[in-house]
Amino acid sequence: MTGMRVADLLALPHARAVGLDGVAGRAIRSVGTDTRNATAGTVFVALRGARFDGHDFVRQALQAGALLCVVSASWHRRHAREAEGMRLLVVRDTLVTLGDIARAYRERFPIPVLGITGSNGKTGTKDLVAAVLKTRFSVLRTEGNFNNQIGLPATLFRLRPSHDLAVVELGTNQPGDIPSLCAIAEPTHGLITNIGRAHIEKLLSREGIAAEKSALYRALPRDGVAFVNADEPLLRASLPRWLERVTFGVSRHAAVRISDVQVDGTGRPRVRIDAPRYAKSPLVVAMRVPGRHAAMMAAAALAVGFAFGCDTDAMVKAIGGFTGGSGRLQVATVGGIRLIDDTYNANPDSTIAALDTLAAMSTEGRRIAVLGDMLELGAAARAEHRAVGEALRALDIPFLLTCGRHAKSIAAAAASGGRFAQHFTDTAALQRALEALASPGDTILVKGSRGMHMEDIVTGLRERLSAEATG
């Protein structure tokens, strides 16, 4: 961290210093929530979680060298005697204060901050946008999906004077998340990838999802810039009139328009993009990321790059070299079997997109889809899972294995179309069936929500195939 001192924390809302007189002028080296990283100069913020309470480790953090610990007033009232002599900042809510510290730190950097959210593709889009911007700027980006009230501050604390831009991912699963995250990051630019059906359990409808996501646009300053999916009317309707906007998508009205997508036998798209406002000639981008839907990621990244004045050739090269992140349509061949790992997460839209990608791939053997539950769909769970099965019936994917409480509806709908579909109640049984079914030449897609741990299926199959190849 740069330039922050303990005295700066004393000005935070609802903060009361206990035993901090001797360290008020000390520089803060880092802010964290894990005592394993508590060293000299650290501010440890005690968070209460489902399994652990950081307050139980306050003394350990101080003994490890932490400058001070941020604790809740309720905890301090109950532990006032044992807390005597400790260096503490006592606050109403430690999670809120973590965000307050992050916002105060972010305000030290008068640089553009691009916030990215959306139902699908926000992490991949964030990474691709950062790759494009790095052709011209020093860019801080969210690592992985550190996109919540703990992850976003962790990202902002990595800001340094050398950074020209920050690209941060903003996640949500309930009303109010995006406004809270925007209050921390104070974005100057905003991009919403799309409005799908992820997290519909608490946001209730696509309209509810749009209202939550579009809070990003409403949080931008009057001189901010909104990057808008021109194919999504729910977003256009929620856009503040005063914002400058750059549109992208398939629509003929898009400033950065996808005019053609060709997918080869490996599932990789070749995308033609027309952007006459920025480039005299159409751009052709050959992507390494599989899936027709990757074209929208490319258009979004180009829209951002054009707005920030990046070189066109450099952007095309960066997009063409992008390979995506772990667990997101990662393709590998093991023991003669092509394995598509898309286990990072799942919702109805991303699952159908992954199935489309599998169906578009040429294969010497059979196409096999292995699907787990899509979570956080609430009352819509049964219908949405059945809709995926119905969509699968129209695709050339003859084998389906499913696992979980809700995925049984996928198998039932798909089986009614005459294909092989088998459902399992646990991943171990599915793993055994998949190992018995899979043969060299097959192409296998594995996908499911994070809570289903479908990555264990990928790991187990890899290990089995590798052992057979070397045995």
Poorly predicted tracts of residues:
none
Instruction: Report mean pLDDT, rounded to a whole number.
Output: 91
Helix content: 25-40%
Strand content: 15-25%
Sheet with most strands: strand arrangement: 7-8-6-9-10-11-12-13-14
Would you give the CATH topology of the largest domain? UDP-N-acetylmuramoyl-L-alanine:D-glutamate ligase
Query: What count of domains describes the coordinates?
Result: 3
* Rg over C-alpha atoms, rounded to the nearest angstrom: 24 Å
CATH class of the largest domain: Alpha Beta
Shape: globular
CATH architecture of the largest domain: 3-Layer(aba) Sandwich
Distance between the termini: 51 Å
- Work out the number of β strands: 20
Major pleated sheet: 9 strands, mixed
Secondary structural class: alpha/beta
The number of helical segments is 18
CATH homologous group name of the largest domain: Mur-like, catalytic domain
Task: Describe the structure in your own words.
The chain is α/β, with parallel strands linked by helices and 471 residues long. It has helices at residues 6-9, 58-63, 73-78, 94-106, 122-133, 151-156, 177-185, 200-203, 206-213, 215-218, 233-236, 294-307, 312-321, 348-360, 381-393, 408-415, 427-437, 455-470, and strands at 16-18, 30-32, 42-45, 68-72, 88-91, 113-117, 139-141, 165-169, 189-192, 225-229, 244-249, 256-263, 269-274, 283-286, 330-334, 337-342, 367-372, 399-403, 420-424, 443-447. Strand 18, helix 16 (408-415) and strand 19 (420-424) form a beta-alpha-beta unit. The protein folds into 3 domains: 6-94, Udp-n-acetylmuramoylalanyl-d-glutamate--2,6- Diaminopimelate Ligase, Chain: A, domain 1; 109-321, UDP-N-acetylmuramoyl-L-alanine:D-glutamate ligase; 330-470, Mur ligase, C-terminal domain (Protein-Tyrosine Phosphatase, Chain A), CATH 3.90.190.20. It has 18 helices and 20 strands. It starts with 5 loop residues before the first helix and ends with a helix. A 9-stranded mixed β-sheet has the order 7-8-6-9-10-11-12-13-14. Strands 15-16-20-17-18-19 form a 6-stranded mixed β-sheet, with helices on both faces. Helix 5 crosses helix 13, helix 14 (348-360) runs parallel beside helix 15 (381-393) and helix 17 packs parallel to helix 18. The protein is globular.
